[in-house]
Amino acid sequence: MHDGTLLAAVDLGSNSFRLEIGRFEHGLIRRIEYLKETVRQGSGLDGERNLTPEAMQRGWDCLARFAERLKGFPADRVRAVATQTLREARNRDAFLQQGSAILGHPIEVVSGPEEARLIYQGVAHLLPQSDERRLVVDIGGRSTELILGHAFCADAVASFRVGSVAWSNRYFADGAFTAESFRTAEIAAKAVLDEALNTYRPQAWDVAYGSSGTAGAVGEMLAAAGGTPGLITRDGLDWLQEQLLRARSADKVRLEGLKEDRRAVIGGGISVLRAVFDLLEIRTMQVAQGALRQGVLYDLLDRELPADDVRSSTVRGLMERFQVDAQHAGRVARTAALLHAQLHPVAQPGAPDHGDRELVWAAQLHEIGCIVSHGDHHHHGAYILEHTDAAGFSVSELHHLSLLVQGHRGKVRKLEANLDNPRLARELACLRMAVALCHARRDPDLEGIALACEGHRFVARARAGWAAAFPQSAHLLREEGVAWQRTSWEFAAELP
Length: 496
Description:
The chain has 496 residues and is an alpha/beta fold. It is built from 20 helices and 14 strands. It has helices spanning 53-70, 84-88, 92-103, 112-125, 164-171, 179-193, 197-200, 212-224, 234-247, 260-263, 266-280, 292-303, 310-321, 326-343, 357-364, 377-387, 395-407, 422-437, 466-469, 471-483, and strands at 6-12, 16-25, 28-38, 78-82, 107-109, 134-139, 144-150, 153-160, 207-211, 231-233, 284-287, 450-454, 457-461, 490-494. The chain has a six-stranded mixed β-sheet with strand order 8-7-6-9-11-10, with helices on both faces. The protein has a five-stranded mixed β-sheet with strand order 3-2-1-4-5, with helices on both faces. The chain starts with 5 loop residues before the first strand and ends with a strand.
């Protein structure tokens, strides 16, 4: 990536949507524009955990305004991520499909641990480098992330379903502040966060940092009242709660530094922050400048080169954890990538080709389920990928990998509902053909082997005499025609 490249991150939070645009310069990203809109999607979940039409429309309207600013940005220079509200929403697919079309870029839902990892990257890249052990606390609208790390490495990440919007709606629904409501809210927050004690105990970190909305709002109010800028103390939190109790309701709070968009959720935010201070025995917390959106920008840099992509490291870790035959997995991955290059050549010679990374990862992980059962390992592998916390991967990326792993053997029609996606169909054809060619668990003879896609028809071809020399491989390729039956795709093996 050359100096001057513009990058953009869109953060679809439970309280606010944010757009961060930065310029890459000398290894760092300099902010050139920041937009924030209070959307309050977290308050738009009904009793069935569906986003209301009004909440979805607020989100779409905001994304339309962001889209105007992002017009002309290349696809690989923008990343949009959604967090807890859209993790919870049962009708999220309807919002995401329309929202992605409006924004002009796909919106990815990230898991709680992945959100935490990205938050830490954002915080760490905007802090001076040191050897300190860091605790990062990010209280969002519907979730709170805790991270232990040093330098740019997040050593432990966790996400808890407690946040400023959720707690304000639950314990301060009428906007009234009472001593009892604060006491109840703090007890409830501690009950959710209690399991954090084992990992995030005071002995595990040197400095505590608060990231994002609640910590920033508290820091600004305390600084405006004469406190040390950028520092949150327990005495300061006690003073703030006393001011809210005196005001008796959110609409009557008059505190310098409290922005209007934060007023409705400040009660829940402060109660959760006080619970974190008590539980983890925090004396002082520094307000961090970095947050999720900066982490997304720096993650875009890492994805530029395969060697720096954290997802590649995650795949290697999963292979080791589930005792995958690495030599065979690499053999299948190389073969699948070769076939994929025939279907999808790089548009510009010399340009990096990121198109087959997910195919390679799926090939490396296609036997991940063998540790459970060899007979149905494709089903077990798909389940593992759907339910694992994998650093660097969004929920949709893991789902895509799980489909490829599930579909690499057996009848293809089990994935019929997903085969209207041509990309998935192409990658699946490459993976299945690679598995067939590598069935003997040794490097296959690929001279003259070719795969073509003609409309909705895949055609495998080989040089004259290849089928006679490798009869089992030829048989498996011919059987692919049967495996793809009763789908909208066809597979044919033309083997002289």
